[in-house]
Specification:
Low-confidence stretches: 48-58
Order of helices and strands: EHEEEHEHEEEEEHEHEH
CATH architecture: 3-Layer(aba) Sandwich
Largest sheet: 8 strands, mixed
CATH superfamily: Vaccinia Virus protein VP39
Strand content: 15-25%
CATH class: Alpha Beta
Number of domains: 1
Mean pLDDT: 88
Number of helices: 6
Oligomer: single chain
Radius of gyration: 18 Å
Strand order of the largest sheet: 1-12-11-2-5-7-6-10
Length: 263
């Protein structure tokens, strides 16, 4: 049975910069921090032509560039540091990046939380996208998983369909490579937001890393996928974004989540 919205779990969503939002958070109130920040691609992010379906969203364009990688790291460091007081001692952090900054982000998290807090380097393998005659095709993102206290963090090992013929129809524990397709042009969940991630990916991460009823914070909420995943899975969604399009898109998706009518 698919979990649905618990009437006792209400989303909190604010249009604000992450840094200002973090300063207002109650101490020790967050169970899972998931961050999908701008990747510093050096280009403007814009919804492709025809991306929005049935008028679901306007263009959530933004300039994804910093003067240098060091400037991007400094931006991220300031915001992560400001968020630490809001994290419970048992909290986990998932930082979603790509090949451009993954190695810098790993060193940053080691510095902020300590190397012993590292849990996993997850690879989201999505398959879609172009290829190049000059390199291996880049078909994955990186998600760095850290726990504030390696002895106390919540983790419920997710299970995924087995792929071997012997285990056909069965499930197995997920590995650190998450083979989940990106959102295709015909997907019903598609909003047209330029950096939207698949709901399946975020539901898996939320179930695995946030306790039932716990608070899931996404301070760069974008299309609202993390918040919707938290709501569906019975966790409390908490998010912000500087973009009015992101807030509007997220609120629309959260409002459409089905309420739970029975225990």
């Amino acid at each position: 049975m698919t979990p649905v919205r618990d009437l006792a779990v209400e989303p909190r969503l604010v249009r604000a910069d992450w840094l200002a939002f973090a300063a207002a958070l109650p101490p020790s109130s967050v169970d899972l921090l998931y961050v999908d920040p701008p990747f510093n691609t050096g280009a403007a992010k814009r919804s492709p032509p025809g991306a929005a379906q049935a008028g679901r969203t306007a263009d959530g364009a933004y300039a994804d560039r910093w003067p240098s990688t060091g400037a991007w790291v400094a931006w991220l460091r300031e915001r992560l540091r400001a968020t630490i007081p809001a994290l419970k001692r048992s909290a986990s952090v998932l930082l979603h990046v790509d090949w451009r900054t993954c190695h810098h982000a790993r060193l940053l998290l080691d510095d902020l939380f300590g190397p012993a807090s590292f849990v996993n380097h997850l690879v989201w393998s999505y398959g879609l996208g172009g290829s190049s005659p000059r390199r291996f095709a880049r078909k994955h993102d990186d998600i760095l998983f850290y726990a504030l206290d390696p002895r106390r963090y919540y983790f419920d090992p997710p299970r995924v369909p087995a792929t071997s013929r012997r285990l056909a129809g069965a499930h197995k524990k997920a590995t650190d490579v998450l083979d989940i397709p990106a959102i295709n042009n015909m997907a019903l969940e598609r909003t047209g937001y330029p950096t939207q991630k698949p709901l399946e990916l975020l539901r898996l991460l939320v179930r695995a890393c946030a306790p039932p009823g716990g608070t899931v914070l996404d301070p760069c909420c974008g299309s609202g996928t993390t918040l919707l995943a938290a709501l569906i899975e019975g966790r409390a969604p908490l998010g912000c974004d500087v973009s009015p399009v992101a807030i509007r898109t997220s609120r629309t998706r959260l409002a459409a989540a089905p309420p739970r009518t029975s225990p």
